[in-house]
UniProtKB/TrEMBL annotation:
The lineage of its organism: Bacteria, Pseudomonadati, Pseudomonadota, Alphaproteobacteria, Rhodobacterales. It comes from the Bacteria. Activated by a monovalent cation that binds near, but not in, the active site. The most likely occupant of the site in vivo is potassium. Ion binding induces a conformational change that may alter substrate affinity. Its cofactor is Mg(2+). This is Ribokinase. One of its GO terms (molecular function) is ATP binding. Homodimer. Substrate binds at N9, A10, D11, G37, K38, G39, A40, N41, E135, D238. Keywords: ATP-binding, Carbohydrate metabolism, Cytoplasm, Kinase, Magnesium, Metal-binding, Nucleotide-binding, Potassium, Transferase.
């Protein structure tokens, strides 16, 4: 089972002729609202990858629909607290030429307390996964608590903050980050990725695939990307991570877990949207990646 301490956002998309200049008022010709936040995306991906996932998070009274949608998508929601503040959200303006501007508000995501986290993890079992990203508070406490309880700790280091990653390094079993983030972490710690005290590190390389650094086995293995025509890369990394941890929770080997996660991420970039359009296992099977 996966326990995901993660953000929950309302993604508000406003479609405009052009982005407004300072002081300009412009009418949107379309509006869409979807479920988002790196945490919610990963929970949905893990659930669609066929494993149990309990989301640990918080929303405001305006965010009840986000909890209902997570539940609809197969995510367990008993440890999502409703508190007296606004739900986290992103207001995203998209112009006809593809340019965008985004205003983020963390809201309830930054009101998650150690008491909420502790109450959830008290129900976890040794061998379960704790999954985290950097859009909530309480990560260090959660990592230390999970490690003490015998959980496997996975950290998706985004939005990237090298100092925060360094704080939780002693309790992480699996780290997922991109190439730029890996370089920044090496500079902060003064150590190469393959010398960090973490069993497994996955470095995503975009269209080039990813590499698996096994510090336990002292090996590095590369995985090429699956060729697809990308139309929207939003949420692809979250989809990859959710599928990866779900596959490992289902006892797949790391190479098989990475292959499945890469297929899910590849299919995700052919879709427009975030959590609401994350593919499930049948979508991947129907696509027939093995035949490409």
């Amino acid at each position: 089972m996966i326990w995901n301490l993660g953000s929950i956002n309302a993604d508000n998309f406003y479609y405009l002729r052009h982005l407004p200049a300072p002081g300009e008022t412009i009418a949107a010709h379309d509006f869409r609202q979807g479920l988002g936040g790196k945490g919610a995306n990963m929970s949905v991906a893990a659930a669609r990858a066929g494993t149990r996932v309990m989301h640990i998070g918080a929303v405001g009274p305006d965010g009840k629909w986000t909890v209902d949608r997570l539940l609809e998508y197969g995510v367990e929601t008993q440890h999502i607290s409703m508190i007296d503040t606004a739900t986290g959200h992103a207001n995203i303006c998209v112009a006809e030429d593809g340019e965008n501007s985004i205003v983020l508000f963390s809201g309830a995501n930054h009101q998650i307390t150690t008491q909420m986290i502790g109450a959830a993890l008290a129900e976890a079992s040794p061998g379960d996964f704790l999954l985290m990203q950097n859009e909530t508070l309480g990560q260090r406490f959660a990592a230390q608590t999970a490690h003490t309880l015998g959980l496997r700790v996975a950290y998706a280091a985004a939005p990237f903050d090298a100092e925060i990653v360094a704080q939780v390094l002693p309790d992480i079993d699996l780290l997922v980050l991109n190439e730029v983030e890996a370089e920044a972490l090496e500079k902060t710690t003064g150590a190469r990725i393959d010398a960090l005290p973490i069993d497994d590190i996955i470095v995503t390389l975009g269209a080039e695939g990813c590499k698996w650094v096994s510090n336990k086995a002292k090996t590095v293995q590369s995985f090429p990307a699956y060729p697809v025509k990308a139309i929207d890369t939003t949420g692809a990394g979250d989809t990859f991570t959710g599928y990866l941890i779900a596959a490992l929770d289902r006892k797949l080997s790391m190479p098989d877990a990475i292959a499945l996660a890469m297929q899910a991420g590849a299919l995700m970039v052919t879709r427009q949207g975030t959590a609401d359009v994350i593919p499930d296992l049948k979508d991947i099977q129907d696509h027939g990646f093995d035949e490409d």
